[in-house]
Design brief:
transcription, nucleus, two-stranded antiparallel ribbon, DNA-binding transcription repressor activity, RNA polymerase II-specific, alpha+beta, Znf_C2H2_type, single chain
Protein backbone atom coordinates (compact mmCIF):
# COMPACT_ATOMS: atom_id res chain seq x y z
CA UNK A 1 0.00 0.00 0.00
CA UNK A 2 2.83 2.34 0.89
CA UNK A 3 4.52 1.44 -2.36
CA UNK A 4 1.43 2.52 -4.39
CA UNK A 5 1.26 5.84 -2.49
CA UNK A 6 4.92 6.44 -3.15
CA UNK A 7 4.39 5.71 -6.85
CA UNK A 8 1.41 8.12 -6.93
CA UNK A 9 3.48 10.74 -5.24
CA UNK A 10 6.15 10.27 -7.86
CA UNK A 11 3.52 10.90 -10.58
CA UNK A 12 2.11 14.01 -8.87
CA UNK A 13 5.47 15.67 -8.26
CA UNK A 14 6.36 16.29 -11.95
CA UNK A 15 2.85 17.59 -12.65
CA UNK A 16 3.05 20.07 -9.74
CA UNK A 17 6.47 21.20 -10.95
CA UNK A 18 5.04 21.72 -14.47
CA UNK A 19 2.18 23.79 -13.07
CA UNK A 20 4.57 25.90 -11.01
CA UNK A 21 6.75 26.41 -14.10
CA UNK A 22 3.68 27.46 -16.19
CA UNK A 23 2.72 30.01 -13.51
CA UNK A 24 6.24 31.39 -13.70
CA UNK A 25 5.94 31.65 -17.51
CA UNK A 26 2.54 33.34 -17.18
CA UNK A 27 4.03 35.71 -14.67
CA UNK A 28 6.81 36.56 -17.10
CA UNK A 29 4.21 37.22 -19.86
CA UNK A 30 2.24 39.48 -17.52
CA UNK A 31 5.49 41.28 -16.58
CA UNK A 32 6.28 41.67 -20.27
CA UNK A 33 2.84 43.13 -20.95
CA UNK A 34 3.14 45.39 -17.95
CA UNK A 35 6.53 46.68 -19.13
CA UNK A 36 5.13 47.28 -22.60
CA UNK A 37 2.18 49.15 -21.13
CA UNK A 38 4.44 51.30 -18.99
CA UNK A 39 6.53 52.16 -22.08
CA UNK A 40 3.36 53.27 -23.93
CA UNK A 41 2.28 55.37 -20.96
CA UNK A 42 5.70 56.98 -20.74
CA UNK A 43 5.61 57.97 -24.42
CA UNK A 44 2.12 59.37 -23.99
CA UNK A 45 2.94 61.29 -20.80
CA UNK A 46 6.18 62.75 -22.20
CA UNK A 47 4.04 64.91 -24.50
CA UNK A 48 2.38 66.55 -21.48
CA UNK A 49 5.46 67.20 -19.33
CA UNK A 50 7.42 65.41 -16.67
CA UNK A 51 5.35 66.85 -13.81
CA UNK A 52 2.14 65.24 -15.06
CA UNK A 53 4.08 62.02 -15.56
CA UNK A 54 5.16 61.83 -11.91
CA UNK A 55 1.73 62.85 -10.55
CA UNK A 56 -0.29 60.49 -12.74
CA UNK A 57 2.04 57.55 -12.18
CA UNK A 58 1.37 57.68 -8.40
CA UNK A 59 -2.39 58.24 -8.67
CA UNK A 60 -3.35 56.07 -11.61
CA UNK A 61 -0.98 53.10 -11.47
CA UNK A 62 -2.62 52.01 -8.21
CA UNK A 63 -6.23 52.39 -9.50
CA UNK A 64 -8.08 49.08 -9.58
CA UNK A 65 -11.01 48.11 -11.80
CA UNK A 66 -14.60 48.59 -10.65
CA UNK A 67 -15.20 44.84 -10.36
CA UNK A 68 -12.58 44.57 -7.61
CA UNK A 69 -10.43 41.97 -9.33
CA UNK A 70 -7.30 43.74 -8.18
CA UNK A 71 -6.03 44.22 -11.74
CA UNK A 72 -4.64 47.65 -12.50
CA UNK A 73 -6.39 50.10 -14.83
CA UNK A 74 -4.37 52.46 -17.00
CA UNK A 75 -5.42 56.06 -17.71
CA UNK A 76 -4.02 58.15 -20.59
CA UNK A 77 -3.72 61.89 -21.21
CA UNK A 78 -7.43 62.08 -22.09
CA UNK A 79 -8.49 60.66 -18.73
CA UNK A 80 -9.92 57.39 -20.09
CA UNK A 81 -9.06 54.12 -18.34
CA UNK A 82 -8.70 50.64 -19.82
CA UNK A 83 -8.47 47.16 -18.39
CA UNK A 84 -7.42 44.94 -21.33
CA UNK A 85 -4.19 45.82 -23.07
CA UNK A 86 -5.83 45.44 -26.53
CA UNK A 87 -8.43 48.15 -25.72
CA UNK A 88 -5.72 50.56 -24.66
CA UNK A 89 -3.78 49.86 -27.85
CA UNK A 90 -6.86 50.52 -30.03
CA UNK A 91 -7.72 53.71 -28.13
CA UNK A 92 -4.19 55.11 -28.47
CA UNK A 93 -4.66 55.31 -32.27
CA UNK A 94 -7.05 58.24 -31.65
CA UNK A 95 -4.14 60.25 -30.19
CA UNK A 96 -1.51 59.06 -32.66
CA UNK A 97 -3.99 59.36 -35.59
CA UNK A 98 -2.76 55.99 -36.81
CA UNK A 99 -5.03 54.40 -39.43
CA UNK A 100 -3.54 51.02 -40.26
CA UNK A 101 -6.51 49.45 -42.10
CA UNK A 102 -6.69 50.60 -45.71
CA UNK A 103 -9.43 50.06 -48.34
CA UNK A 104 -7.87 48.61 -51.51
CA UNK A 105 -10.61 50.05 -53.76
CA UNK A 106 -10.65 53.74 -52.84
CA UNK A 107 -7.61 54.18 -50.58
CA UNK A 108 -9.50 55.29 -47.45
CA UNK A 109 -7.89 54.39 -44.11
CA UNK A 110 -9.47 53.40 -40.79
CA UNK A 111 -8.34 52.89 -37.19
CA UNK A 112 -10.39 49.75 -36.63
CA UNK A 113 -10.85 46.68 -38.80
CA UNK A 114 -14.63 46.69 -38.13
CA UNK A 115 -14.83 50.25 -39.55
CA UNK A 116 -13.01 49.06 -42.68
CA UNK A 117 -15.44 46.13 -43.07
CA UNK A 118 -18.43 48.47 -42.69
CA UNK A 119 -16.93 50.86 -45.27
CA UNK A 120 -16.29 48.04 -47.79
CA UNK A 121 -20.04 47.48 -48.01
CA UNK A 122 -20.21 50.76 -50.00
CA UNK A 123 -18.25 49.02 -52.78
CA UNK A 124 -19.88 45.58 -52.46
CA UNK A 125 -23.33 47.16 -51.91
CA UNK A 126 -23.97 44.60 -49.21
CA UNK A 127 -26.92 45.64 -47.04
CA UNK A 128 -27.39 43.01 -44.38
CA UNK A 129 -29.76 44.90 -42.05
CA UNK A 130 -33.34 44.82 -43.34
CA UNK A 131 -36.35 46.76 -42.08
CA UNK A 132 -39.22 44.35 -41.38
CA UNK A 133 -41.84 47.00 -42.14
CA UNK A 134 -40.79 48.34 -45.55
CA UNK A 135 -38.00 45.88 -46.51
CA UNK A 136 -35.48 48.68 -47.01
CA UNK A 137 -31.92 47.46 -46.39
CA UNK A 138 -28.96 49.13 -44.71
CA UNK A 139 -25.24 48.48 -44.49
CA UNK A 140 -25.04 49.50 -40.79
CA UNK A 141 -27.19 48.60 -37.80
CA UNK A 142 -27.33 52.17 -36.48
CA UNK A 143 -28.73 53.32 -39.84
CA UNK A 144 -31.51 50.74 -39.48
CA UNK A 145 -32.30 51.97 -35.94
CA UNK A 146 -32.51 55.55 -37.16
CA UNK A 147 -34.72 54.44 -40.08
CA UNK A 148 -37.16 52.56 -37.81
CA UNK A 149 -38.06 55.85 -36.14
CA UNK A 150 -39.72 56.90 -39.43
CA UNK A 151 -42.29 54.14 -38.94
CA UNK A 152 -42.74 54.73 -35.23
CA UNK A 153 -42.92 58.50 -35.72
CA UNK A 154 -40.60 58.85 -32.76
CA UNK A 155 -38.76 62.17 -32.73
CA UNK A 156 -37.23 62.66 -29.31
CA UNK A 157 -34.66 65.27 -30.24
CA UNK A 158 -35.90 68.85 -30.69
CA UNK A 159 -34.10 71.93 -31.98
CA UNK A 160 -34.54 74.75 -29.45
CA UNK A 161 -34.09 77.44 -32.13
CA UNK A 162 -36.55 76.45 -34.86
CA UNK A 163 -38.61 73.69 -33.21
CA UNK A 164 -37.73 70.98 -35.73
CA UNK A 165 -37.69 67.42 -34.38
CA UNK A 166 -35.38 64.54 -35.24
CA UNK A 167 -35.34 60.80 -34.68
CA UNK A 168 -31.65 60.68 -33.81
CA UNK A 169 -29.36 62.84 -31.68
CA UNK A 170 -26.78 62.83 -34.46
CA UNK A 171 -29.29 64.29 -36.94
CA UNK A 172 -30.14 67.06 -34.48
CA UNK A 173 -26.44 67.81 -33.99
CA UNK A 174 -25.90 68.11 -37.76
CA UNK A 175 -29.03 70.27 -38.11
CA UNK A 176 -27.88 72.72 -35.45
CA UNK A 177 -24.96 73.68 -37.67
CA UNK A 178 -27.50 75.48 -39.87
CA UNK A 179 -28.02 77.94 -36.98
CA UNK A 180 -24.44 78.08 -35.69
CA UNK A 181 -22.83 78.20 -39.16
CA UNK A 182 -20.32 75.61 -37.97
CA UNK A 183 -18.44 73.80 -40.76
CA UNK A 184 -15.99 71.45 -39.06
CA UNK A 185 -14.87 69.55 -42.16
CA UNK A 186 -12.07 71.37 -43.98
CA UNK A 187 -10.65 70.56 -47.43
CA UNK A 188 -6.89 71.01 -47.29
CA UNK A 189 -6.61 71.28 -51.09
CA UNK A 190 -9.02 74.11 -51.92
CA UNK A 191 -9.91 75.51 -48.48
CA UNK A 192 -13.65 74.80 -48.67
CA UNK A 193 -15.50 73.96 -45.44
CA UNK A 194 -18.47 71.63 -44.96
CA UNK A 195 -21.04 71.10 -42.23
CA UNK A 196 -21.53 67.39 -42.95
CA UNK A 197 -18.97 64.61 -43.29
CA UNK A 198 -20.89 63.09 -46.23
CA UNK A 199 -20.75 66.35 -48.19
CA UNK A 200 -17.04 66.66 -47.42
CA UNK A 201 -16.32 63.08 -48.61
CA UNK A 202 -18.20 63.69 -51.86
CA UNK A 203 -16.26 66.93 -52.38
CA UNK A 204 -12.91 65.17 -51.85
CA UNK A 205 -13.64 62.99 -54.88
CA UNK A 206 -13.40 66.13 -57.06
CA UNK A 207 -9.70 66.32 -56.16
CA UNK A 208 -8.95 62.58 -56.08
CA UNK A 209 -11.04 61.78 -59.17
CA UNK A 210 -12.33 58.62 -57.43
CA UNK A 211 -15.62 57.37 -58.88
CA UNK A 212 -16.55 54.21 -56.96
CA UNK A 213 -20.05 53.75 -58.44
CA UNK A 214 -20.08 51.97 -61.82
CA UNK A 215 -22.92 51.57 -64.33
CA UNK A 216 -23.10 47.93 -65.44
CA UNK A 217 -24.66 48.84 -68.81
CA UNK A 218 -22.37 51.54 -70.21
CA UNK A 219 -19.38 51.34 -67.83
CA UNK A 220 -19.70 55.00 -66.82
CA UNK A 221 -18.48 55.79 -63.30
CA UNK A 222 -19.83 58.25 -60.76
CA UNK A 223 -18.63 59.86 -57.55
CA UNK A 224 -22.03 59.50 -55.84
CA UNK A 225 -24.47 56.61 -55.49
CA UNK A 226 -27.46 58.91 -56.08
CA UNK A 227 -25.97 60.19 -59.37
CA UNK A 228 -25.59 56.59 -60.57
CA UNK A 229 -29.26 55.85 -59.77
CA UNK A 230 -30.38 58.93 -61.74
CA UNK A 231 -28.07 57.98 -64.64
CA UNK A 232 -29.54 54.45 -64.83
CA UNK A 233 -32.89 55.97 -65.84
CA UNK A 234 -31.31 56.71 -69.25
CA UNK A 235 -31.09 52.94 -69.82
CA UNK A 236 -34.44 52.03 -68.25
CA UNK A 237 -36.28 55.00 -69.84
CA UNK A 238 -37.92 55.62 -66.48
CA UNK A 239 -39.42 59.12 -66.13
CA UNK A 240 -41.02 59.52 -62.73
CA UNK A 241 -41.75 63.24 -62.80
CA UNK A 242 -44.68 64.52 -64.90
CA UNK A 243 -45.61 68.11 -65.76
CA UNK A 244 -49.30 68.57 -64.92
CA UNK A 245 -49.65 71.39 -67.47
CA UNK A 246 -48.28 69.87 -70.69
CA UNK A 247 -47.85 66.20 -69.78
CA UNK A 248 -44.10 66.07 -70.40
CA UNK A 249 -42.19 63.55 -68.28
CA UNK A 250 -38.72 63.86 -66.79
CA UNK A 251 -36.19 61.49 -65.25
CA UNK A 252 -35.08 64.07 -62.66
CA UNK A 253 -37.10 66.21 -60.26
CA UNK A 254 -34.71 69.12 -60.89
CA UNK A 255 -35.39 68.93 -64.66
CA UNK A 256 -39.16 69.09 -64.01
CA UNK A 257 -38.70 72.13 -61.74
CA UNK A 258 -36.69 73.96 -64.43
CA UNK A 259 -39.22 72.96 -67.11
CA UNK A 260 -42.15 74.32 -65.09
CA UNK A 261 -40.60 77.79 -65.30
CA UNK A 262 -41.49 77.78 -69.01
CA UNK A 263 -45.15 77.79 -67.97
CA UNK A 264 -44.77 80.21 -65.06
CA UNK A 265 -42.34 82.53 -66.90
CA UNK A 266 -40.12 82.52 -63.84
CA UNK A 267 -36.46 83.46 -64.52
CA UNK A 268 -34.79 83.64 -61.10
CA UNK A 269 -31.17 83.82 -62.31
CA UNK A 270 -29.99 87.33 -63.34
CA UNK A 271 -26.86 88.39 -65.19
CA UNK A 272 -25.42 91.40 -63.38
CA UNK A 273 -23.69 92.71 -66.51
CA UNK A 274 -26.41 92.70 -69.17
CA UNK A 275 -29.63 92.09 -67.20
CA UNK A 276 -30.43 88.88 -69.08
CA UNK A 277 -32.42 86.36 -67.06
CA UNK A 278 -32.36 82.57 -67.04
CA UNK A 279 -34.52 79.71 -65.79
CA UNK A 280 -31.58 77.73 -64.41
CA UNK A 281 -28.18 78.48 -62.84
CA UNK A 282 -26.37 76.42 -65.50
CA UNK A 283 -27.72 78.69 -68.24
CA UNK A 284 -26.53 81.76 -66.31
CA UNK A 285 -23.03 80.32 -65.75
CA UNK A 286 -22.65 79.49 -69.44
CA UNK A 287 -23.86 82.96 -70.40
CA UNK A 288 -21.45 84.75 -68.04
CA UNK A 289 -18.50 83.33 -69.99
CA UNK A 290 -19.60 85.58 -72.88
CA UNK A 291 -18.63 88.58 -70.72
CA UNK A 292 -15.49 87.08 -69.17
CA UNK A 293 -14.29 85.47 -72.40
CA UNK A 294 -13.42 82.41 -70.34
CA UNK A 295 -12.99 79.17 -72.30
CA UNK A 296 -11.73 76.58 -69.84
CA UNK A 297 -12.11 73.50 -72.06
CA UNK A 298 -9.25 73.01 -74.54
CA UNK A 299 -9.02 70.33 -77.24
CA UNK A 300 -5.61 68.66 -77.02
CA UNK A 301 -5.73 67.62 -80.69
CA UNK A 302 -6.46 70.93 -82.47
CA UNK A 303 -6.09 73.53 -79.70
CA UNK A 304 -9.67 74.86 -79.95
CA UNK A 305 -11.13 76.17 -76.69
CA UNK A 306 -14.74 76.11 -75.47
CA UNK A 307 -16.70 77.89 -72.78
CA UNK A 308 -19.11 74.98 -72.27
CA UNK A 309 -18.21 71.38 -71.51
CA UNK A 310 -21.06 70.06 -73.67
CA UNK A 311 -19.74 71.88 -76.75
CA UNK A 312 -16.23 70.63 -75.99
CA UNK A 313 -17.49 67.04 -75.74
CA UNK A 314 -19.39 67.37 -79.04
CA UNK A 315 -16.30 68.83 -80.72
CA UNK A 316 -14.14 65.86 -79.69
CA UNK A 317 -16.35 63.60 -81.82
CA UNK A 318 -15.03 65.46 -84.88
CA UNK A 319 -11.66 63.81 -84.16
CA UNK A 320 -12.96 60.42 -82.95
CA UNK A 321 -15.66 60.14 -85.64
CA UNK A 322 -18.08 58.92 -82.97
CA UNK A 323 -21.78 59.27 -83.83
CA UNK A 324 -23.74 57.80 -80.91
CA UNK A 325 -27.23 59.03 -81.91
CA UNK A 326 -29.06 56.83 -84.46
CA UNK A 327 -32.23 57.53 -86.44
CA UNK A 328 -34.50 54.47 -86.20
CA UNK A 329 -36.20 55.26 -89.52
CA UNK A 330 -33.31 55.82 -91.94
CA UNK A 331 -30.24 54.64 -89.96
CA UNK A 332 -28.53 58.03 -90.18
CA UNK A 333 -26.11 58.78 -87.33
CA UNK A 334 -25.37 62.04 -85.54
CA UNK A 335 -22.78 63.40 -83.14
CA UNK A 336 -25.37 65.34 -81.11
CA UNK A 337 -28.82 64.41 -79.81
CA UNK A 338 -30.14 67.85 -80.84
CA UNK A 339 -29.15 67.16 -84.48
CA UNK A 340 -30.99 63.83 -84.34
CA UNK A 341 -34.15 65.53 -83.04
CA UNK A 342 -34.04 68.12 -85.83
CA UNK A 343 -33.42 65.37 -88.42
CA UNK A 344 -36.40 63.32 -87.20
CA UNK A 345 -38.66 66.22 -88.20
CA UNK A 346 -37.97 65.27 -91.84
CA UNK A 347 -39.85 62.03 -91.16
CA UNK A 348 -42.56 63.53 -88.94
CA UNK A 349 -42.92 66.70 -91.10
CA UNK A 350 -42.94 68.67 -87.83
CA UNK A 351 -42.16 72.39 -88.21
CA UNK A 352 -42.51 73.94 -84.75
CA UNK A 353 -40.91 77.33 -85.51
CA UNK A 354 -43.46 79.77 -86.94
CA UNK A 355 -42.94 83.13 -88.72
CA UNK A 356 -45.70 85.49 -87.55
CA UNK A 357 -45.21 87.85 -90.51
CA UNK A 358 -45.76 85.50 -93.44
CA UNK A 359 -46.99 82.31 -91.78
CA UNK A 360 -44.09 80.12 -92.93
CA UNK A 361 -43.01 77.27 -90.64
CA UNK A 362 -39.53 75.89 -90.10
CA UNK A 363 -38.13 72.73 -88.57
CA UNK A 364 -35.11 74.55 -87.11
CA UNK A 365 -34.98 77.74 -85.04
CA UNK A 366 -31.87 79.02 -86.84
CA UNK A 367 -33.68 78.67 -90.19
CA UNK A 368 -36.52 80.82 -88.85
CA UNK A 369 -34.05 83.46 -87.63
CA UNK A 370 -32.34 83.55 -91.02
CA UNK A 371 -35.73 83.76 -92.77
CA UNK A 372 -36.86 86.73 -90.63
CA UNK A 373 -34.10 88.83 -92.22
CA UNK A 374 -36.16 88.71 -95.44
CA UNK A 375 -38.83 90.81 -93.66
CA UNK A 376 -36.43 93.14 -91.86
CA UNK A 377 -34.27 93.58 -94.98
CA UNK A 378 -31.21 93.03 -92.84
CA UNK A 379 -28.14 91.85 -94.79
CA UNK A 380 -25.26 91.79 -92.32
CA UNK A 381 -22.82 89.77 -94.47
CA UNK A 382 -20.91 91.92 -97.00
CA UNK A 383 -18.57 90.78 -99.77
CA UNK A 384 -15.46 92.97 -99.75
CA UNK A 385 -14.67 92.09 -103.41
CA UNK A 386 -17.91 92.96 -105.20
CA UNK A 387 -19.92 94.77 -102.51
CA UNK A 388 -22.84 92.33 -102.52
CA UNK A 389 -24.65 91.77 -99.21
CA UNK A 390 -26.44 88.68 -97.90
CA UNK A 391 -28.97 88.00 -95.19
CA UNK A 392 -27.68 84.48 -94.53
CA UNK A 393 -24.12 83.56 -93.62
CA UNK A 394 -24.29 80.22 -95.50
CA UNK A 395 -25.36 82.00 -98.72
CA UNK A 396 -22.53 84.51 -98.22
CA UNK A 397 -19.98 81.67 -97.89
CA UNK A 398 -21.24 80.07 -101.13
CA UNK A 399 -20.98 83.44 -102.90
CA UNK A 400 -17.34 83.90 -101.85
CA UNK A 401 -16.48 80.73 -103.79
CA UNK A 402 -17.40 82.54 -107.04
CA UNK A 403 -14.36 84.76 -106.39
CA UNK A 404 -12.01 82.05 -105.13
CA UNK A 405 -13.17 79.43 -107.67
CA UNK A 406 -13.32 76.87 -104.87
CA UNK A 407 -15.49 73.80 -105.66
CA UNK A 408 -15.19 71.51 -102.62
CA UNK A 409 -18.12 69.19 -103.52
CA UNK A 410 -17.11 66.63 -106.23
CA UNK A 411 -19.55 64.22 -107.92
CA UNK A 412 -18.34 60.65 -107.44
CA UNK A 413 -19.84 59.50 -110.77
CA UNK A 414 -18.75 62.10 -113.32
CA UNK A 415 -16.05 64.05 -111.46
CA UNK A 416 -17.87 67.36 -111.80
CA UNK A 417 -17.30 69.74 -108.88
CA UNK A 418 -19.65 72.21 -107.24
CA UNK A 419 -19.41 75.19 -104.93
CA UNK A 420 -22.15 74.01 -102.56
CA UNK A 421 -23.65 70.74 -101.36
CA UNK A 422 -27.17 71.66 -102.50
CA UNK A 423 -26.13 72.01 -106.17
CA UNK A 424 -24.25 68.68 -105.97
CA UNK A 425 -27.35 66.98 -104.56
CA UNK A 426 -29.52 68.34 -107.41
CA UNK A 427 -26.88 67.29 -109.96
CA UNK A 428 -26.74 63.70 -108.65
CA UNK A 429 -30.39 63.24 -109.66
CA UNK A 430 -29.19 63.18 -113.30
CA UNK A 431 -27.34 59.93 -112.49
CA UNK A 432 -29.95 58.44 -110.16
CA UNK A 433 -32.97 59.50 -112.23
CA UNK A 434 -34.68 60.61 -109.01
CA UNK A 435 -37.62 63.02 -109.45
CA UNK A 436 -38.90 63.84 -105.97
CA UNK A 437 -41.31 66.65 -106.93
CA UNK A 438 -44.74 65.35 -108.08
CA UNK A 439 -47.60 67.38 -109.56
CA UNK A 440 -50.88 66.28 -107.98
CA UNK A 441 -52.92 67.62 -110.92
CA UNK A 442 -51.31 65.92 -113.90
CA UNK A 443 -48.93 63.37 -112.30
CA UNK A 444 -45.75 64.75 -113.85
CA UNK A 445 -42.52 64.47 -111.80
CA UNK A 446 -39.51 66.78 -111.68
CA UNK A 447 -35.93 66.56 -110.48
CA UNK A 448 -35.67 70.25 -109.46
CA UNK A 449 -37.83 72.31 -107.16
CA UNK A 450 -37.63 75.37 -109.46
CA UNK A 451 -38.79 73.37 -112.51
CA UNK A 452 -41.69 71.98 -110.49
CA UNK A 453 -42.76 75.50 -109.39
CA UNK A 454 -42.63 76.75 -113.00
CA UNK A 455 -44.78 73.79 -114.10
CA UNK A 456 -47.44 74.48 -111.45
CA UNK A 457 -48.10 77.87 -113.04
CA UNK A 458 -49.45 76.03 -116.10
CA UNK A 459 -52.32 74.86 -113.90
CA UNK A 460 -52.74 78.02 -111.80
CA UNK A 461 -52.29 80.46 -114.70
CA UNK A 462 -49.99 82.59 -112.55
CA UNK A 463 -47.66 84.91 -114.50
CA UNK A 464 -45.45 86.77 -112.00
CA UNK A 465 -42.87 88.13 -114.48
CA UNK A 466 -43.80 91.54 -116.09
CA UNK A 467 -42.25 93.33 -119.04
CA UNK A 468 -41.69 96.95 -118.02
CA UNK A 469 -41.86 98.20 -121.62
CA UNK A 470 -45.10 96.66 -122.93
CA UNK A 471 -46.77 95.23 -119.84
CA UNK A 472 -46.82 91.60 -121.00
CA UNK A 473 -46.68 88.93 -118.26
CA UNK A 474 -44.96 85.53 -118.23
CA UNK A 475 -45.05 82.39 -116.08
CA UNK A 476 -41.26 81.91 -116.26
CA UNK A 477 -38.35 84.31 -115.94
CA UNK A 478 -36.61 82.72 -118.95
CA UNK A 479 -39.62 83.55 -121.15
CA UNK A 480 -39.49 87.19 -119.99
CA UNK A 481 -35.79 87.43 -120.87
CA UNK A 482 -36.46 85.99 -124.34
CA UNK A 483 -39.27 88.49 -124.83
CA UNK A 484 -37.12 91.46 -123.75
CA UNK A 485 -34.75 90.78 -126.66
CA UNK A 486 -37.56 91.83 -129.04
CA UNK A 487 -37.52 95.33 -127.48
CA UNK A 488 -33.74 95.39 -127.57
CA UNK A 489 -33.80 94.77 -131.34
CA UNK A 490 -36.46 97.44 -131.81
CA UNK A 491 -34.43 100.09 -129.99
CA UNK A 492 -32.46 102.13 -132.60
CA UNK A 493 -28.70 102.24 -132.19
CA UNK A 494 -27.03 105.65 -132.12
Amino acid sequence: MMQIKEENQDDVEPRVKAEVKQEEVDGEVEDSKRKCLVELLKKSDEQHGEENDERDSHENDQQTDKHGTGKRLRRLQCGKSFLPFSHLKEHQKIHTKEKSYCCTQCGKSFRQVKRLKTHQRIHTREKMYRCSQCEQSFSEMNHLWEHKKIHSGEKLHHCSQCGKSFGGARNLQIHQRVHTGEKPYHCSQCGKNFSQAGHFRRHERIHTGIKPYHCSQCEKSFAEDQTLKIHQRIHTGEKLFDCCQCGKSFAHAASLKIHQRIHTGETPYHCSQCDRRFTCSRGLRSHQMVHTGEKPYECTQCGKTFSQFGNFKHHQRVHTGEKPYHCSQCDKKFTQSSNLKVHQRIHTQEKPHHCFQCGKNFSRLENLKEHQKVHTGEKPHHCSQCGKSYAQYATFQIHLRTHTGETPYPCSQCEKKFSCARILKVHQRIHSGEKPYHCTQCGKSFAHDSTFKNHQRVHTGEKPYHCTQCGKTFSQNAHLKTHQKIHARETPKH
